Amino acid sequence: MRPSVSKRDTALILSAAALACVILFAVVYTFVYYTDLPRIDSHIPEDYVPAFDFNKNGNSDAEDLVLGARKDAQNHPTYDGSYQPGGYPPDDIGVCTDVIWRAFRAAGYSLRDMIDADIRTRPEAYPNIDVPDSSIDFRRVKNLRVFFDTYAISLTTNIAKTNAWQPGDIVIFGDDTHIGIVSDKRTESGRPLLLHNGGQDEREEDALGNDRVTGHYRFDASRLPEELRIAWEG
Question: Mean pLDDT highest for which of 27-31, 42-46, 107-111?
Answer without folding.
Answer: 107-111
